[in-house]
Amino acid sequence: MNELLGLVFSPWTEKARWALDVRRVPYTFRHYQPLIGEPALRAKLRRLTGRVSVPVLTTDEGRVLDGSTDIARWADGRGAGPTLFPAEHEAEIARFIELSERALTAGRARALSRMLADDEALAEMAPGPVRRALGPFASRLGALGVRRTLRKYDGHTADGETHRQALVAALDELRTTLARKTLAGTGPKTLLDSFTFADITMSQVLVNVKPPAELKLGAASRRCFSDPELGEPYADLIAWRDDLYRAFRTS
User: Fold this and answer.
1) Is-cis flag, bond preceding 188, omega within 30?
2) Alpha-carbon distance 5 to 56, whole Å?
3) d(CA 129, CA 161)
4) Residue 195: is it exposed, middle or buried by C-beta count within 10 angstroms (0-12/13-18/19+)?
């Protein structure tokens, strides 16, 4: 059986899961424990130094794929369902992937910065048994993990306004693209001629504006991932994302 290692609250993991699900590729999901699980992850990836992260898929053929895009491409060649990477749209999909990566990196930095000021959200970052054992000290452990993540992905090197501008630029481009599209049938608009990985990857940009109900977050973490400055101005895009989930996210 294919096994996906990931974080239930991560938009990168969600991109991989959505691709596997919409292509109806069977897999089991295993939750990754940061820090504790890193040695095993390095061994799996055969990467003793440098950055390692999830999602990582181990296929039933013994291949190890890391990164949501590579996992989605692999899924697109298996199962059945919408073609996620139609050949005629490769360049456009690549552009949307790059745009979403910049926006997600910026959004993560903003969300984690808010989290550092929220002890309840920091405590939620610790696994349940650890949180219960540490009590009020769980937030300190959570803060260590959040600061480590910011250092790992260079989220601490740019100021908040730079991150905000990167996120807003992606949201504005998403809105402009959708405005040029004509609604076909009763489903939501898609960025290309049909539902593709472009829709999956760009929909995740909204995680750091208002997380979808499907994303498993504690109440405090959801508060930190929600951007109070951008939620109302981009309510139309949140509604588009939610429509996309109802139409194409059945698992």
Assistant:
1) no
2) 5
3) 37
4) buried
142: which residues sit within 8 A by CB, 6+ positions away?
115, 121, 122, 123, 124, 125, 126
pLDDT per position as a tens digit, 165-174: 999 999 999 9
Integer Rg of the chain from CA: 18
User: For residue 29, how far is the Cα from the chain centroid?
Assistant: 15
Tokens of 219: 């109440």
80 CB neighbour count, 10 Å cutoff: 8
The tokens for 69 are 């895009």
Are 72 and 238 in contact by the 8 Å Cβ rule? The answer is no
DSSP code, position 80: S
Nearest to 149 by CA among 57, 222, 53: 53
Report residue 5's pLDDT band, with 50, 70 and 90 as the boundaries: very high
Q: pTM for the complete prediction?
A: 0.91
- What is the structure's pLDDT at 73? 98
Where would I find the H helices in the chain? 11-22, 38-45, 68-76, 90-115, 119-124, 128-134, 138-152, 160-179, 197-203, 219-225, 235-248
Nearest to 197 by CA among 108, 70, 42, 28: 70
- Most confidently modeled of 58-72, 113-127, 210-224? 58-72
Residue among 84, 68, 72 nearest 10 (CA): 68
pLDDT of residue 151: 85
Stretch 72-87: mean pLDDT: 96
